[in-house]
Specification:
With 73 residues, the protein is an alpha+beta fold. The protein is built from two helices and three strands; from the N terminus they run H-E-H-E-E. The chain is 29% helix and 25% strand. The radius of gyration is 13 Å and the shape is flat. A three-stranded mixed β-sheet has the order 1-2-3. The longest helix is centred in the middle third of the chain and has 14 residues.
């Protein structure tokens, strides 16, 4: 499942979801009952969707001392 939450030019950031879009997204997450959700973006503004997914395990990039790597969050 991919999320369409960014403007056409991703440099413009996340586009705000209206109440109906957000409700549909939450319903879709709940129906699918994910075990794993992976966020391949390197920016933290999409982490809220990982939490919203309700997935048992979530993975995202972490910019730590040793450079960027995927981390279970």
């Amino acid at each position: 499942m991919t999320l369409d939450v960014f403007h056409e030019m991703s440099a413009e950031g996340i586009r705000p979801l209206n109440g109906e879009e957000l409700e549909r997204l939450q319903h879709s997450f709940h129906e699918r009952q994910f075990d794993l959700a992976i966020d391949l973006r390197r920016r933290p503004e999409t982490r809220k969707y990982l939490k919203m997914s309700g997935a048992r395990y979530t993975v995202a990039y972490d910019a730590g001392e040793d450079g960027e790597w995927l981390s279970i969050v």
